[in-house]
Design goal:
Order of helices and strands: HHHHHHHHHHHEEH
Number of helices: 12
Distance between the termini: 24 Å
Structural class: mainly alpha
Largest sheet: 2 strands, antiparallel
Strand order of the largest sheet: 1-2
């Protein structure tokens, strides 16, 4: 266990010392913020103003809460992805074979990368959460309650575990940093669409919505949005019909429906946990079956 701890610390320090790595981990967040500041934010604000007939300040509170919830998930995925790139870098530099000389199994060696990615993503997730709260305060919103803050941490952790396990399964078939760079770039481009941040869920064709509903990250994003936007929606839609609130939440991807069934937070959590378990098992099988020295 001591060697495992040393390896985890080593991977985390490698990530933190590479300022370029840290920057590119947050690049997707910066792009999303820029797009919302320049264009997308106004579209969502105007839609809400017309939908609920409210003043801009209230619409700003809701849409920015919605935005920050999405960014929480995006950062969790991208930081996990960048952290796992250290494993590819070690392979390319022929350092993995050197690690195998130490008294540690191949499984624990791979586990060290997974643990390091999970811890780092969670730590930066907390930093992102603090930023999001100040951001929302800055646009006239309110801080989440302590209970909601704890729930946000829980949802974030489940999302990270699911993302790390899934990304490990994918990176197990990547052998060079050039290939991994292409994968990271593709993921960074797609994640805004997959989590329905660039365009609200309701603005997409039904066929596209059906495809997106096959990705676990969408349910994690919806849960995070529910936690972030509930106080704002309760304030803005006070006295409004339940049907109007449900329509808005469905359009913005705060709630997900399959046919006539609206997915509850419990159902979304089960999907996330299920995907985390499945991908973790797959990651374990890959770690045991695949000879690292031959990767």
């Amino acid at each position: 266990m001591k060697i495992l701890g040393v390896l985890v610390k080593r991977h985390m320090l490698m990530y933190l010392k590479d300022k370029q790595n840290v920057f590119f981990s947050f690049l997707s967040m910066l792009i999303i913020l820029a797009l919302n500041t320049v264009f997308l934010g106004d579209v969502n604000i105007k839609y809400l103003q017309e939908f609920a007939n409210i003043e801009k300040a209230k619409a700003l509170y809701v849409t920015n809460s919605w935005l920050m919830a999405g960014i929480m998930i995006v950062n969790a995925v991208m930081i996990s992805c960048t952290m796992l790139g250290i494993m590819i870098k070690d392979e390319e530099d022929h350092k993995l074979q050197g690690f195998l000389v130490a008294p540690i199994s191949r499984f624990k060696l791979v586990l060290s990368y997974i643990i390091a990615a999970t811890i780092t993503a969670f730590a930066f997730g907390i930093a992102t959460f603090i930023f999001s709260q100040f951001y929302i305060l800055g646009v006239g919103g309110s801080l989440l309650s302590p209970l909601r803050m704890l729930a946000v941490m829980g949802v974030m952790l489940v999302n990270i575990v699911s993302s790390v396990a899934m990304l490990f399964c994918i990176t197990s078939f990547v052998h060079t940093m050039n290939s991994y760079g292409a994968l990271t770039t593709t993921l960074g481009t797609l994640i805004g669409f997959v989590s329905a941040i660039y365009l609200p869920m309701g603005s997409l064709p039904e066929s596209v919505q059906s495809v997106l509903k096959g990705f676990p990250i969408l349910y994690g994003t919806a849960m995070m949005r529910e936690l972030y936007t509930a106080p704002a929606i309760n304030t803005v839609f006070e006295g409004a019909p339940t049907e109007a609130i449900s329509l808005y939440k469905e359009y913005m991807g705060v709630s997900i429906t399959w046919g006539d069934t609206q997915m509850s937070n419990g159902m979304s959590l089960l999907i996330l946990l299920g995907s985390a378990i499945i991908f973790t098992i797959l990651a374990g099988v890959i770690a045991k079956k695949r000879r690292i020295s031959d990767r």
